[in-house]
Structures are given as structure tokens and as C-alpha cells.
Amino acid sequence: QVHLVESGGGSVQAGGALRLSCVVSRDTRRSNSMGWFRQAPGKEREGVAAIYTGDGTTYYADSVKGRFTISRDNAKNTVYLQMNSLKPEDTARYYCAAGLWVAQNLEPLEYDYWGQGTQVTVSS
Asked: Do 120 and 18 form a contact (C-beta atoms < 8 A)?
């Protein structure tokens, strides 16, 4: 079993920034891909960003390209999501996930383990 714990959420004004962290209970490289997802009330969970743990290739949803950056620190078993220029539409609960073998990096169904999430609220 793999455990993931997110932190770093909070409330910010539009244009602000937050950095989310996800600590994984084992070497992140044992998962093929790590991803960040979000879910707003009444909406489906959507992929925000993902990173292949081997070569570090990153993927982003169009809605966050140029504003969000995913990164990982293998020595700390931690994945980060730096979120800049936040918008009210970024308000959601953000989840970290680990996938053992992922082909579609922003597809939630491809991921095997999930954290409990951290709330991000952006006010206008």
C-alpha cells in the first residue's frame, strides 16, 4: 500500500500563489507517474499536471499551462505543484496520485493511489 499526504492548500486572492506538496510513503520512482488532480463541487475530477518519475517529463492541462509547475524531489519522496497567477476558477480540492503504469498522464482512472486532498480557494 502506498500512502500520499498533501499539504500547502489555503485561501488566496486572485493573482496569488501557493505551493502544494505531496509526500509519498515510498520512493516515487517506484511509481511510473505522479499526478495532481482537482475537483470542484459538482464537477468531475480533472487532471492538472503530471510527471513521469523516471525522466521527469511533465504534462499540463491547457487551463494551467504557464501558471502551474510540477516537480519532484526523489530524495524526499515528494512531489510539488507550484501554482502562480491563481484564478477563482482554480478553486477546488487538489489531490495527489501515484500511478504504477500510466499511459494517459492526466486521466484519473489511470492512477492507483490517492491522497486525501488539500483545499485551494481563490477569491476575486
From this structure: yes
Q: How far is CA 81 from CA 8, 9, 20, in A?
A: 9, 10, 5
Contact 68, 19 (CB under 8 A): no
List the grid coordinates of 13. Answer: 486572492
pLDDT tens-digit profile of 38-86?
999 999 999 999 999 888 999 999 999 999 999 999 889 999 999 999 9
Distance (Å, rounded) from C-alpha 36 to C-alpha 69? 10
pLDDT at 29 over 80: no
Closest CA to 44 of 105, 109, 113: 109
User: Which cell numbers hold the place of 50?
Assistant: 503530471
Q: How many CB atoms lie within 10 A of CB 121?
A: 15
